[in-house]
Amino acid sequence: MTTNFDALATRILEGGPDTGATAADALAVLQAPDFELMSIVAAAGRLRREHFGNKVKVNYLVNLKSGLCPENCNYCSQAIGSEAPILKYSWLSKDDAIRQAGAGLKGGASRVCMVSSGRGPSNRDIDKVVEMTEALKDEYDGVEVCACLGLLKDGQAERLKAAGVDAYNHNINTAESNHDNIVQTHTYEDRVDTIGKAKSAGLSPCSGLIAGLGETDEQLVEALFALKELGSDSIPVNFLMPFDGTPYENTWELSPTRCVKILAMARFVCPDKEIRIAGGREMHLRTLQATALHVANSIFLGDYLTSEGQDAKSDLEMMRDNGFVILGQENAFNDGTFDDVFNAPAAGAAHTPAATSPCGSASTGCGTSCGGCAAGLSGEPADDHKPVIRQRGAGTEVPANA
């Protein structure tokens, strides 16, 4: 029986007891035939517009410390045992961290996500992030800072909050029932505990998932309802990037339509929360990236932690061309000065116009970042369709992609 997704959106918008999406509703979104995709997008888009209008929140990642992690998360290129040829470096200096963050802020980002690899921060690591946060807040008025440093010890969240950190990211990544299949060096309860520590300290909880880890539809639903129960204010939805040299290399479970349905399910379950399209969007959503923004309301600009993303200029073009405005830059769009935002970051290779690369990537052409050329019309990846290792921005002398 076909689900009336518009009626579901109406029920959610009307509010009141027992009007939220149920697990059965969420499952129906995931299992709907592909020909219903635009009906799903239209219905979920009503919820997005009710709470967020046509605004897109732009976030920017700064990888403060890359690789060298003792945890065995099977999906991660930075994990112990990973043979992925990623950049590996210890902590960035304060000045370099601020410089990298500034590139994203000048490109339209309003939130900087400061990330370090490892099980969790030492108190000296917290000292570093406190210093970076205070310097960043002094230099950029109104910037939001989200820290992502791993499992927190007692008192560390309070120190971050006192320094001006606004949010703390710690993804549950998958359903509790699937957790032990993807990592064994820490537990699901460890992750939930850190989210609780962040909330108790007054930090906005940012927690999401990774799709494509062998989970069932029911486990995706389980994970989303767990995030709702945890009160996650921001829900990053990542799509597995199957790095060579990790246990998940050559794992391809996702199609563009399935990725949009996952984002739509998140919107139905958590209608008033920030739903962020995160890692892997280029290679999995491909030509449906803009469609997905009619459901989600947040995006990462430029590159990710260890992999290259779509050319940042192409990200901005996609938002502009589809009628969206960047949160915090509304006037720049409305008074015709969008080019001031568009061209603000000082060039370098990261700002080569998309036309110079057939897939809109700042890399070397087709088969690199976006997947638009490397993946055929069948939805199956080509043999050379792999995550591209980041070789610019933090930890390098090459200009950032922002």
The radius of gyration is 20 Å
**Any idea what the CATH superfamily of the largest domain is called?**
Aldolase class I
Count the domains.
2
Arithmetic mean of pLDDT: 88
Shape: globular
Helical coverage, percent range: 25-40%
Q: Classify the fold: give the CATH topology of the largest domain.
A: TIM Barrel
Q: Let me know the largest β-sheet.
A: 10 strands, parallel
Task: Please give the alpha-carbon distance between the first and last residues.
Answer: 46 Å
Q: Please identify the top-level CATH class of the largest domain.
A: Alpha Beta
Number of helices: 15
What would you say this structure looks like, in words?
Strand 7 (234-239), helix 10 and strand 8 form a beta-alpha-beta unit. Strands 1, 2, 3, 4, 5, 6, 7, 8, 9 and 10 form a 10-stranded parallel sheet that branches. The model is unreliable at 333-338 and 345-384 (pLDDT under 50). The chain is α/β, with parallel strands linked by helices and 402 residues long. The protein contains 15 helices and 10 strands. It has helices at 5-14, 23-31, 37-52, 94-106, 123-139, 156-163, 179-182, 188-200, 217-230, 256-269, 281-285, 289-293, 312-321, 330-334, 338-342, and strands at 55-65, 111-116, 144-148, 167-169, 204-206, 209-211, 234-239, 274-277, 298-300, 325-326.
